[in-house]
Amino acid sequence: MNFNEAMDKALAQARTMQKQVNEAVNSAAEQVKPHLQKSIDEARDLQATLNKHAAASGEVAAQQAQTAIGHLNDFIRMGSEAMRESAEQTRETALKMVDQSRKVVEAASAAMGKGPETPP
Predict the structure, then answer these.
(1) Residue 66 falls inside a structural domain
(2) Each residue of 17-63: pLDDT tens digit?
(3) Is the pLDDT assigned to residue 70 strictly greater than 60?
(4) Domain that holds residue 73
């Protein structure tokens, strides 16, 4: 996999993660947790991709990747907390995760040198 393919994969993972969170928020509160778990799993996959990118990149791109990884860490922490909360608390946390997923996509896009795309 060349550098551009790796970057495209990372951006696709970020967008997929953002889509999963959007779907979770739009679902009924009692149906949120499976979507949250899937988005957390996507976030962990993206984290691994960005870690590889940071190690193989120049200083500026590596710093941007680290910023994205920091947002991912916050996202995963929020999602893990939401999995332990009541349905209403989960819904509130999921709304916060939507905002955090936007930060992840923006930071990952900056790290890859591409503009963020809005999810469908």
Answers:
(1) yes
(2) 888 887 777 666 667 778 888 989 998 998 888 888 778 777 888 88
(3) yes
(4) 3-112
pLDDT of 72 > 70? The answer is yes
Distance CA 55, CA 82 (A): 31
Number of structural domains in the chain: 1
Tokens of 86: 């009541």
Burial category of 27 from C-beta neighbours within 10 Å (exposed 0-12, middle 13-18, buried 19 and up)? middle
The DSSP line for 36-83 is HHHHHHHHHHHHHHHHHHHHTS-HHHHHHHHHHHHHHHHHHHHHHHHH
Q: How many C-beta neighbours within 10 Å does residue 114 have?
A: 14
